[in-house]
TrEMBL record:
<dbReference type="GO" id="GO:0046933">
    <property type="term" value="F:proton-transporting ATP synthase activity, rotational mechanism"/>
</dbReference>
<comment type="similarity">
    <text>Belongs to the ATPase B chain family.</text>
</comment>
<keyword id="KW-0793">Thylakoid</keyword>
<keyword id="KW-0934">Plastid</keyword>
<keyword id="KW-0066">ATP synthesis</keyword>
<dbReference type="InterPro" id="IPR002146">
    <property type="entry name" value="ATP_synth_b/b'su_bac/chlpt"/>
</dbReference>
<comment type="subunit">
    <text>F-type ATPases have 2 components, F(1) - the catalytic core - and F(0) - the membrane proton channel. F(1) has five subunits: alpha(3), beta(3), gamma(1), delta(1), epsilon(1). F(0) has four main subunits: a(1), b(1), b'(1) and c(10-14). The alpha and beta chains form an alternating ring which encloses part of the gamma chain. F(1) is attached to F(0) by a central stalk formed by the gamma and epsilon chains, while a peripheral stalk is formed by the delta, b and b' chains.</text>
</comment>
<keyword id="KW-0138">CF(0)</keyword>
<dbReference type="GO" id="GO:0045259">
    <property type="term" value="C:proton-transporting ATP synthase complex"/>
</dbReference>
<dbReference type="GO" id="GO:0009535">
    <property type="term" value="C:chloroplast thylakoid membrane"/>
</dbReference>
<comment type="function">
    <text>F(1)F(0) ATP synthase produces ATP from ADP in the presence of a proton or sodium gradient. F-type ATPases consist of two structural domains, F(1) containing the extramembraneous catalytic core and F(0) containing the membrane proton channel, linked together by a central stalk and a peripheral stalk. During catalysis, ATP synthesis in the catalytic domain of F(1) is coupled via a rotary mechanism of the central stalk subunits to proton translocation.</text>
</comment>
<keyword id="KW-0813">Transport</keyword>
<keyword id="KW-0812">Transmembrane</keyword>
<keyword id="KW-1133">Transmembrane helix</keyword>
<feature type="transmembrane region" description="Helical">
    <location>
        <begin position="32"/>
        <end position="49"/>
    </location>
</feature>
<keyword id="KW-0406">Ion transport</keyword>
<dbReference type="Pfam" id="PF00430">
    <property type="entry name" value="ATP-synt_B"/>
</dbReference>
Length: 184
């Protein structure tokens, strides 16, 4: 301690010869120099440091505020996107249900249409078969009738002579005459 006070006392005893000298006693001058530097730094640097810290604090607060605003906007957009997704999912589910029911309706309609078509084809087939049977039966009847007629004509031509022919005609005329009397 004595060294510190001695250094202050020795300031007053410097010769005023206009020369400047250095005190080379490190133990005596260092604490004084350091205390002067600290006082100057604290006195002048306090405002600068305070301004720097205030500016840094404002930038950090602005960054936090901007981040909060961006976060809020992102949350809003996320909620909108989720809401849109839910809406799209509901529409997709509704569309799926509608399409499934539409597909089922179309399937049933197609099955019913196919059944009706098959029924019509079956009816057409049966009508065609019936028509062909009737046509075949009519052809067979015509052939049988033609053969029977040819056979009867052949038999009549071979068995009949003029006399039998005249008697048959007379008998038939007599029968027609009797029938006429009965009906009158």
């Amino acid at each position: 301690m004595k060294n510190v006070t001695d250094s202050f006392v020795s300031l007053g005893h410097w010769p005023s010869a206009g020369s400047f000298g250095l005190n080379t006693d490190i133990l005596a001058t260092n604490p004084i120099n350091l205390s002067i530097v600290f006082v100057v730094l604290i006195f002048f640097g306090k405002r600068v440091l305070s301004d720097l810290l205030d500016n840094r604090k404002q930038r950090i607060l602005n960054t936090i505020r901007n981040s909060e605003e961006l976060r809020g906007g992102a949350i809003e957009q996320l909620e909108k996107a989720r809401s849109g997704l839910r809406k799209v999912e509901m529409e997709a589910d509704q569309y799926r249900v509608n399409e499934y029911s539409d597909i089922e309706r179309k399937k049933l309609k197609l099955i019913n249409s196919t059944y009706k078509t098959l029924e019509q084809l079956e009816n057409f087939k049966n009508e065609t078969i019936h028509f062909e049977q009737q046509r075949t039966i009519n052809q067979v009847r015509q052939r049988v009738f033609q053969r029977a007629l040819q056979g009867a004509l052949g038999t009549l031509n071979s068995c009949l002579n003029n006399e039998v022919h005249l008697r048959t005609i007379s008998a038939n005329i007599g029968m027609f005459g009797a029938m006429k009397e009965i009906t009158d």
